[in-house]
Amino acid sequence: MEAIAIVRRRLDNRRVRPEQPNINRNIRAQQVLLIDHENENRGVTDTRDAISLAEEVGLDLVVVSEGKETPVAKILDYGKHQYQQKKRQKQSAKPTMKEVKLRPNVDDADYGIRIERATEWLDKGNHVKFQIRLRGREHQHRDRARELLERIVQDLDKVAKVQSLDTKSLIVQLVPES
């Protein structure tokens, strides 16, 4: 019983290494399809020769695509490559349209919070869409909903300009003031 506990403890204490990127000496393939730093295809070459070419130029040999037979490797600055990838991820993950849904009888405190949030989003460069939803008998008082839309436009006039205002469907889209 005690031996089993010791074995489990040893397995639990093992450190998990993060997967190493395929750069320079970490490339396991014998040969790679090489693209040099000037984006010229050099064809299939030995990995050692490719690494020496990269070191001569002062750059890294990075596997860009794992192929079935030979991986595609490119000579580039790995730090710059990582930075550009992170930058692309941030840009693609950033939503540009934020949506706020309101009812025509919204309380002043809730309204104030929504306007503050919209101001923050507009300051960050996002577009904001306000939609007023009507239910049941609220349809008889569409004029209150239109007044709320106009109030939103007036309150955000300093930080945004109106992209579209649809009083029929009760939607206003705002873009940051340039």
What does this structure look like?
With 178 residues, the chain is α/β, with parallel strands linked by helices. It has 2 domains: 14-89, Ubiquitin-like (UB roll); 95-176, Translation Initiation Factor IF3. 38% of the residues lie in helices and 26% in strands. The protein contains 5 helices and 8 strands, in the order αββαββαβαβαββ. The chain has helices spanning 2-12, 47-57, 78-93, 108-123, 142-155, and strands at 31-35, 41-46, 60-65, 72-76, 97-102, 127-132, 160-166, 171-176. The chain has a 4-stranded mixed beta sheet with strand order 2-1-4-3. α4 links the parallel β5 and β6. The longest helix has 16 residues, at 78-93. The N and C termini lie far apart (71 Å).
Instruction: State the domain count.
Output: 2
- C-alpha end-to-end distance: 71 Å
Question: How many E-type strands?
Answer: 8
CATH class of the largest domain, anyone? Alpha Beta
Encode the helix/strand succession as letters: HEEHEEHEHEHEE
Query: Level of helix content?
Result: 25-40%
Any guess at the CATH architecture of the largest domain? 2-Layer Sandwich
CATH fold name of the largest domain = Translation Initiation Factor IF3
The total of helices stands at 5
Low-confidence stretches: none
Give a quick account of the main beta sheet: strands, pairing sense, barrel closure.
4 strands, mixed
Mean pLDDT, to the nearest integer, reads: 83
Q: Kindly report the spatial arrangement of strands forming the biggest sheet.
A: 2-1-4-3
Strand content: 25-35%
CATH superfamily of the largest domain: Translation initiation factor 3 (IF-3), C-terminal domain
Morphology? rod-shaped
